Amino acid sequence: MTATARPASTTPASALRALLASGRVTHAPGVYDPLTAALAVRAGHRAAHLSGAAVSAITLGRAEPGFVHGAQIADRASTLAPALDGVPLIADADTGHGNPLHAVWSAMAYVRAGIAGLHLEDQAGPKRHGHLAGPELIGATEAAAKITALADQVPEIVVIARTDAYAVRGLDETIVRCRAYAEAGAEAVLPAGVDTLAELTAVHRALPGVPLVVNRSEAGGSRPALTDDELSEVGVRLVLHPVAALLAAMRAASLAYRAIADSGTAEPVDRMPWAAFTTLAGQEEAFGPDARYVPGTLQT
What is the annotated signal peptide range for this record (predicted)? Predict the structure, then answer.
């Protein structure tokens, strides 16, 4: 079984397809504004990710992705594409926000915003982190219909099919759904919750030729420490880190605020130099001559 082939081009989507076909693991860190996008590019990343939870948190102060719609994610993504400079952006499409027609609408908005790929899940409603009963799933046929609609009507975007079956129905159902979604037109599959080498191997053997994506969100707790070589051997081509940078930024901000509250200065806190910040923001001339001497390979 192989994922659906797409014509080659020079778009961000074609760059993402090349990564999926490369035979190696690519890590996609979460970005959420133009500055974090620029930092990811300067760090050498070849893909980036926009999380629904991150968009919800920074726009509404709520960490649950169900509070935002695809239109809001597309709007946020449109501010990131220029800073990514061609690096493909993968965005959370949640459940597609309704039926196949709604999923197509969301995907078209994503394409206009410069998004290269999306991941679409088979939960019956918005993701709920930390709930005890596990996710409620829609039927595999219904989920596959959304994927087919996207593959047929929005070929400009890479479709990654996520299934949350593992938490409630186990590995066998996860494999059944991943196979159905690949046959429906998904170019990669994300078996949420499948983390051990043995189980990833089982998925890979059942779906030869289909790229696997794994999610390393801190929302899912600790996971086995698998190397890139191990992941590559079992067909993993993308590893998402949706909120790592956001959590790091929030931690750094909390330390700065606490230092100011305690001592009246943020001097003890490690911060990016002002010249580096203005260089990153493209404002060297506006903010002074020192910024132009910050190396292009900015180290923070």
Answer: none
What confidence tier does 225 reach under pLDDT thresholds 50, 70, 90? confident
pLDDT-based confidence at 100, cuts 50/70/90? very high
pLDDT digits (tens, 9 = 90+) for 192-207: 999 999 999 999 999 9
Which among 85, 93, 123 is positioned nearest to 109, based on CA atoms? 93
How far is the C-alpha of 193 from the C-alpha of 230, rounded, in Å?
17
The H or E element that residue 28 is part of is strand 26-29
Other C-beta atoms within 10 Å of 220: how many?
13
Work out the burial of residue 177: count CB atoms within 10 Å of its CB; fewer than 13 is exposed, 13-18 middle, 19 or more buried: buried
Domains located in the chain, CATH noted: 12-220+227-242 (3.20.20.60), 249-286 (no CATH)
Q: What is the DSSP string of 179-244?
A: HHHHHHT-SEEEETT--SHHHHHHHHHHSTTPPEEEE--GGG-------HHHHHHTTEEEEEESSH
CB-based contacts of 139, cutoff 8 Å, min separation 6: none
85 — alpha (psi -120 to 50), left (phi > 0) or beta? left
Sign (positive or negative) of CA dihedral 185, 187, 193, 194 = positive
Closest CA relative to residue 75, chosen from 110, 45, 44: 110
Please state, in angstroms and as integers, the Cα–Cα distance from residue 209 to each residue in 147, 155, 236, 258, following that order: 18, 20, 11, 51
Q: For 64-78, 107-121, 135-149, 240-254, which range has the lowest pLDDT when averaged over its residues?
A: 64-78
Do the Cβ atoms of 269 and 252 come closer than 8 Å?
Answer: yes
Distance CA 209, CA 32 (A): 32
Q: Is 150 helix (H, G, I), strand (E, B) or coil?
A: helix
